[in-house]
Amino acid sequence: MKKPDPERYRLAADNRKARFNYEIKETVEAGIALQGTEIKSLRGGKATIGESYAGPMGTELFLFNAHIPEYLEANRFNHEVRRPRKLLLHRREINKLMGAVQREGMALIPLKVYFNDRGRAKVELGLGKGKKLHDKRETEKERDWNRDKQRLLKAGG
Fold first, then answer.
1. What is the distance between the alpha carbons of residues 133 and 17, in angstroms, rounded to a whole number?
2. CA-wise closest residue to 36 among 65, 76, 69, 77
3. Beta-carbon contacts of residue 52 (< 8 Å; ≥ 6 apart)
4. Where is the composition biased (Basic and acidic residues) (predicted)?
5. pLDDT tens-digit profile of 57-104?
6. Rounded distance between C-alpha atoms, residue 70 and residue 50, angstroms
7. Is residue 47 a contact partner of residue 13, using CB atoms and an 8 Å limit?
């Protein structure tokens, strides 16, 4: 799948701990069905997807527990803050992801919510397995080593 160009989209929410807690095998871009006040609130950039996850409800995929705050100017027409939001994917993609979740014990983790070059809200989903404690330590060790290596190269050269 083609990666989105960072200059062409604007980040609305990011799940930075996801790559630390999960070993991401594959990423998928999905559309998200939002109400009018939700899209306005997302453009403000105050959404959080740290505790959210994606999963099946019937034959569709939904994003659960994503926090999109109320839009202050909307008064009584506001949306529910943590409602399940439908993910827009092709049927073939939904079946593939649901099969991986049910058969192989993988998890669908939202990595980021952003606006593409056409102004549409998109969710980047990661299909991955949860890391064990020793894997997390290994990741942290590797990150520290890379940081020290860059520091040494900068000081020496």
1. 14
2. 77
3. 15, 63, 64, 65, 66, 67, 110
4. 135-151
5. 989 999 999 998 888 887 777 888 889 999 999 999 999 999 888 888
6. 18
7. yes
